[in-house]
Structures are given as structure tokens and as C-alpha cells.
Task: inverse folding
């Protein structure tokens, strides 16, 4: 094989770009990103809602968020790219006693990890967001340092700086097979020929399980469509509106530009790679959002501002991160279950350190090892939207 790189990264979305950034930041300049499509972020990164939150149910996800938020605070200085980070908070709403208990339990975990979240009464919520219908609300949790970023800007910041630091990217390049010698991955075979490598990172997102299958590695990921609706200009909700998450319906919404972005994880969506937006989703999500935000009755929706994208969902809604036992030189960084943007700095750091130092020094990501599935040590993140 004439073509080679120290590290090959499969997948040019936000995770692949983050890994490349942190590798090159640590001085590993010979990094090659392989992207199957003709542009980056086509299926997941560029179709994300961009949420950044610390309000999770497990310590490991909370720690990933806190690490990443610290990085986002300095993102423009470090990469030269404005992340459009808006610290408007996340507000989870509960209308049932069981949901209140759930939020209070999660809050205790979050506060133990240093998250400045708090429980709000119905009256507090009405003051924070007067546009909400609150008569059925029993309470909620709010973290003012949560917020949202522009997903494409995060990917581009990592991508551009990694390339300035020596990384390369090849578009329209698909990995067809691996080269394995004595139990170690020593390269990949692409539609443009073979490439030798000391390490290969599978950051293929919703396709990560198919990449793993080429090596006989079972990576338990389900590609699943998620859809987003965005209104035309809508001034009846403030620009500083927190991300609202209604536990009774699963609906979430926030301001996006001069409009409102709405999403909902439809449980009836089948597994697969289809990202075609279904117009019926508009009525379904408005039906869920309107009782909570009555002023949305005045909003107009344009199909051109609606889209579908892919989640790469793991069985316990936690990322799968680290080396694969029995296949030396092969690393997985996928299965983010909708949290890839917000955890990209943490995961890029962890994988880069594993490759270069043999361990993740900045973060304890041992609970995210692929071995947890065989051992029955699943983590079960329940704060998923």
C-alpha cells in the first residue's frame, strides 16, 4: 500500500472532525478523514437541533457535557470559528407526579456533579416563560448554563483547524474493507484503493455498525430517523427562550433564528437510513406543542424549513467509545443517540488520548467501552429527547 496515514478516521461529521482536531492538537499531524458523501454532515451533524445540556440522568453523560461546555466557551478562540453558542438554558416540564420524582432524582445526580440546575415551581416557570400554559404543570428543572450551538459551525471549526494543523480529508471515499495482520488493523481498502494506517477510528455514526461488520465486530447501533419542523418568522416567543422539553408529550422546542424549531422522537419510526421528511409530522408535532404553547396557533410552517436526519442509537443511549478487544488498532466513537454535537469535544479528546497515550487522561470513559454490552453493564440514560 503506497498511500498511508498515521490515523484514518472513517466519517467526516462532527465526531470525526473532533477526533482529527484533538489528534493534530496533540501533535499527530498525519491524520486522514474519509467521508463517503460529497460533503460533510449530510445525515446527522447538519440536521441536528444543536442542543447542549448537562441535565442527564447518569454521571458519565453529565461529565461529558460539562467538559464539552467548557470547551465551547473557548471554541472561537481555539478554532477561529464562532460556535453561535446561546446560553439560554434548558427547561424540563413535568405534569405528572412520576415525572416530578424523575426530575428530582436526576437533579440530585446533576447537582452532585456540580451542575447549576434547580427545581422550579409552577409559579417560577410562569415567570420564566409567560407564554406557556402552566395550569397542569407540577414543576420542572432548569439549568441556565445549558443552551444550543450551531451544529455546522462546530463541525467546521473542528474541521478547519484540524486541517490547518495537518489533517487531510477525502470526500466521496467509502471504506469497503479492512486490512488485518495478526489480529491488528493495518489499513483500509476504499473505493479509491488501499490506505495503510497505524490506527483506524470508526466515527461513521448511523453507519458505524455496518463498518464494524466488515471486521466481524458487532456494534449495537440502530439508525433511526428524527424530524424537525421550523416555523416562519415568529415574534411571540422571545429570542432568549430556553429549550423547552415537555415530558408529557416528548415535544421540545426553541427559537431558531427568527422562527421556532420543534422536534419530537416519534417512537413509531422504523429503523433505517431514510431521512425523507414526512409532511404528516407537522400536524403530529403541532398537536403536541399547541396545548403547552398556545400562541403557536399563529405560527406558519414552510415545508422548506423542515427536515429529517439520523440518530445513531445504542441500546442504553450512551456513546460507544474506545478500542475494540481482539482487534488491535481499531477504535469506535459512535452511538451518541442524539448527543453527538454536545459531547463532541469530550469524545474527540478521549479517542485522541487513547490512540496517542494508551488511555483517556482527561476523562474517565471506561463506562462507555463496547465491552459493557457483553458484560451486561449497560448504563440506561433515560433523559433522551
Result:
Amino acid at each position: 500500500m503506497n498511500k498511508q496515514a498515521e490515523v484514518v478516521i472513517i466519517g467526516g461529521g462532527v465526531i470525526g472532525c473532533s477526533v482529527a482536531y484533538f489528534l493534530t492538537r496533540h501533535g499527530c499531524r498525519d491524520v486522514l478523514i474519509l467521508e463517503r458523501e460529497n460533503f460533510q454532515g449530510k445525515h446527522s451533524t447538519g440536521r441536528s437541533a444543536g442542543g447542549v445540556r448537562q441535565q442527564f440522568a447518569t454521571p458519565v453523560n453529565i461529565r461529558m457535557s460539562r467538559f464539552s461546555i467548557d470547551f465551547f466557551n473557548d471554541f472561537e478562540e481555539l478554532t477561529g470559528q464562532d460556535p453561535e453558542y446561546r446560553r439560554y438554558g434548558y427547561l424540563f416540564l413535568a405534569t405528572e407526579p412520576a415525572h416530578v420524582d424523575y426530575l428530582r432524582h436526576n437533579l440530585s445526580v446533576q447537582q452532585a456533579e456540580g451542575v447549576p440546575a434547580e427545581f422550579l415551581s409552577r409559579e417560577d416557570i410562569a415567570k420564566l416563560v409567560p407564554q406557556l400554559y402552566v395550569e397542569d404543570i407540577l414543576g420542572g428543572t432548569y439549568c441556565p448554563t445549558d443552551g444550543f450551538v450551531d451544529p455546522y459551525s462546530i463541525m467546521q471549526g473542528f474541521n478547519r483547524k484540524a486541517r490547518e494543523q495537518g489533517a487531510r480529508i477525502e470526500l466521496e471515499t467509502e471504506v469497503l474493507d479492512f486490512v488485518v495482520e495478526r489480529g491488528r488493523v493495518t489499513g483500509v481498502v476504499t473505493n479509491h484503493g488501499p490506505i495503510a494506517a497505524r490506527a483506524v477510528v470508526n466515527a461513521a455514526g448511523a453507519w458505524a455498525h455496518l463498518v464494524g461488520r466488515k471486521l466481524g465486530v458487532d456494534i449495537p447501533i440502530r439508525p433511526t430517523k428524527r424530524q424537525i419542523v421550523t416555523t416562519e418568522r415568529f415574534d411571540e416567543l422571545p429570542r432568549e427562550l430556553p429549550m423547552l422539553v415537555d415530558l408529557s408529550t416528548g415535544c421540545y422546542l426553541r427559537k431558531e433564528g427568527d422562527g421556532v424549531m420543534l422536534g419530537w422522537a416519534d417512537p413509531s419510526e422504523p429503523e433505517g437510513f431514510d431521512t425523507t421528511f414526512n409532511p404528516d409530522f407537522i400536524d403530529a408535532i403541532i398537536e403536541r406543542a399547541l396545548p403547552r404553547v398556545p400562541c403557536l396557533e399563529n405560527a406558519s410552517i414552510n415545508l422548506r424549513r423542515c427536515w429529517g436526519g439520523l440518530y445513531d442509537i445504542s441500546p442504553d443511549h450512551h456513546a460507544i467509545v474506545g478500542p475494540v478487544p481482539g482487534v488491535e488498532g481499531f477504535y469506535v466513537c459512535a452511538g451518541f443517540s442524539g448527543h453527538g454535537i454536545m459531547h463532541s469535544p469530550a469524545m474527540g479528546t478521549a479517542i485522541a488520548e487513547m490512540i496517542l497515550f494508551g488511555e483517556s487522561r482527561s476523562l474517565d470513559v471506561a463506562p462507555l467501552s463496547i465491552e459493557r454490552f457483553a458484560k451486561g453493564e449497560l448504563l440506561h440514560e433515560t433523559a433522551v429527547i
In short: The chain has two domains: 4-50+152-221+316-375, 87-147+223-313. Residues 87-147+223-313 form a domain with the D-Amino Acid Oxidase; Chain A, domain 2 fold (CATH 3.30.9.10). The first strand starts at residue 4 and ends at 10.
